[in-house]
Amino acid sequence: MPTLALCLKESMRLYPPVPFMERELAEETLIDGHAMPPGTQIAVSILFMHRHPMLWEDPDDFRPERFTWEQMKGRDTFSYVPFSAGPRNCIGQNFGVQEIKILICRIIRKYTVELAPVRPPPIRYPQVTLQSENGMWLKFKLRT
Ligand code: HEM
Fold it and tell me: Where do the annotations place heme binding (predicted)?
């Protein structure tokens, strides 16, 4: 799989653009030993799931190779759900990924991009979409 696709997947693992989902239970459901009645509102944190140490080795490390075929073998399909899963998953996911790839290609054709020499780590700010409270500190240099 090309490097860009691997990097994109790993970025969306660490920083899922949609950090959580909500559901209402249609029937009684056993969650972690507790019987939840129908109608219970459930919040599923994609953000926490994507960094859960039971699911990911060194969860905070950026390692795009996690998404090579070899390393994906045996991994629970539901451990990585930036676009949700099941019948109500994101209908725009392929379009969204293509847009991001095109945007990145257009930027790096024109600029070299580096981390800014002084950069505070991004403070995650989960709203409907995940944002950085203190921005993203990068240095753009026009290619000659
Ligand atoms: C990186 C980009 C995107 C991400 C991470 C993303 C993520 C998600 C997630 C997690 C859900 C499930 C939400 C939930 O069930 O509460 C969702 C649903 C949805 N997304 Fe996206 N999305 C992206 C781009 C797009 C684009 C580009 C479109 C349309 C062109 C789109 C259209 C939709 C629609 C219509 C639903 C609702 C599907 C349903 O309920 O049946 N998304 N998306």
Answer: 90
